[in-house]
Amino acid sequence: MVYHSMTGGTRQMVEAAARGAADEPGVLTRVLSAPEAGPDDVLAADGYLFASPENLAALSGMMKDFFDRCYYPALERLNGRPYAAMICAGSDGENAARQLARIATGWRLKPVAEALIVCTHAQTPEAILAPKSITGTDFKACEALGAALAAGLAMGVF
Questions:
Q1: Which of 9, 95, 86 is nearest to 57 (CA)?
Q2: What is the pLDDT of residues 93-136, one digit of tens each?
Q3: Domains of the chain, residue spans
Q4: Which of 44, 88, 91, 111 could be bridged to 10 by S-S, CB 3.0 to 4.6 A?
């Protein structure tokens, strides 16, 4: 799982997904922040969960930096591996999800679920920059996505 988070929302989403994946025997889950993750981490994984806030209708700069650093070293070496995506957005999150899907398509990754977009409805500068809290059904959806990805990997479905 590779993520970036400035206000805590995306980090909480990934923590929930990691909790969901943790119950799957035989699946090792690594959670790395985008600045920590590199090409060797990407190449070593059997599947991926990418998570980013939507900033200015796009992936966060740190997630884009991760993809910029890893894209060419991993190109043609990940074909067919499964991935899922999570976006923490103030409004719709669709463009960030679309951008991530285009990168994954270039890597020839296999999407195993629709992008999970959690909307915080933050619309003012103060609300956008404020710490976020992911709870309830959004938290459970993140947990379920992590569990489903891990189960699919464990069963060899993907």
A1: 95
A2: 999 999 999 999 999 999 999 999 999 999 999 999 999 999 99
A3: 2-155
A4: 88
